[in-house]
Amino acid sequence: MKARGGKSIYGAAVGILMLDARFPRIVGDMGNALTWPFPVHYKIVRGASPDRVVRRNAEGLLDVFIGAARELVADGVDGITNCGFLSLFQEELADAVGVPVATSSLMQVSLVNRLLPKTKRAGILTISASTLTPLHLKKAGVPAGTPISSTEAGTEFTRVILGNEEELDVEAARRDNVEAALQLARANADLGAIVLECTNMIPYAADIREVTGLPVFSIASFVEWFQSSLQPRRFRLTSA
Question: pTM for the complete prediction?
C-alpha cells in the first residue's frame, strides 16, 4: 500500500467556521469538539461576533468568511459548515472554496417536508426570529410561510448567546428552548417536525423531542449526514 499526501491535516473531513465568541459551549454545542463522533477541524472567524452575524446580517464579513473557509480547505478539509444565519453566504462560499458547503441547518427544512405526510410540515426554532429575514430563508431554500418560533421570549438562552456572556444557566436555557418549541407546536396543528436553526440548540434537541413528540432536526443531524458523504463508512464485502 502507498499513502498519498497533499494535505496538512488528515482525518477531519468537516471544517467548521466558528464565530468569534466567548459564551459557554457545552457538550452538544457545535463548538464543543466532544459533540462529534468524528474529528472536526475548527477555524475562528475573527470579528464575526454573535451580535454582528445574527442581528446585523453579518455585514462586511463575506470576504472574511471566504478567507477563513479557504484556509480550512488549504489545511485539508473536504467540506465546510457554520452558523445557521450564514445561509446568506451559501452560494458565495460554495463558489469560492470548491468543496461542498452546508452553511445552515435551515437547508434541511425542504427535505424534512418531503419526509412528512402532505398534511404536515416542518417548523423552525430560531435564536432570533426578529432578525431571521425572508432572505435568510430564501437562501436556505425554506418554503414561504414556514412557521417559526424563537427563544427570544425566554430569560437566558438568546441573551447569553447573542450577548456573548461568559456564564450560562443550562437549565434555564433548556427551559427557554423547550417552551419555544411547545409554543411552535401549540400554534401549528399541522406541525410534523422541528428544525433547530441555531448551532447552540443541539443540547436541547432530546428534551424538545420528548415534550413535543415530534422529530427534531439540528445542525448535528445535518453535519453527521454531510460527513458521511465525505468519509463513507467502509464495509467488509461479505454476505455473512
Answer: 0.95
Q: How far apart are CA 159 and CA 196, in angstroms?
A: 17
CB-CB contact of 35 with 29 (8 Å): yes
In the Cβ-directed half-sphere of 146, how many Cα atoms lie within 13 Å? 31
| pLDDT tens-digit map of 32-42 | 999 999 999 99
List the Cα angle 203/204/208 in 5-degree steps.
Answer: 150
CA–CA dist 79, 230 (Å, integer): 7
For the stretch 134-188, pLDDT in tens is 999 999 999 999 999 999 999 999 999 999 999 999 999 999 999 999 999 999 9
Burial 46-60 (b: 16+ CB within 10 A, else e): eebbbbbbbeeebee
Number of structural domains in the chain: 2
CATH of the domain at 199: 3.40.50.1860
Collapsing DSSP to helix, strand or coil, 45 comes out as strand
Closest by Cα among 41, 113, 124, 40 to 85:
124
* Same domain as 115, residue 51: no
Q: State in Å, rounded, how far the first CA of the chain is from the last one.
A: 27
- 3-state secondary structure string across 13-28: CEEEEEECCCCCCCEC
Do 70 and 121 reside in the same domain of the chain? no
Using left for φ > 0, alpha for ψ between -120 and 50, and beta otherwise, residue 104 falls in: beta
User: Which residues form the domain of 57?
Assistant: 14-104+223-230
Task: Give burial (CB, 10 Å; 0-12/13-18/19+) of 27.
Answer: exposed
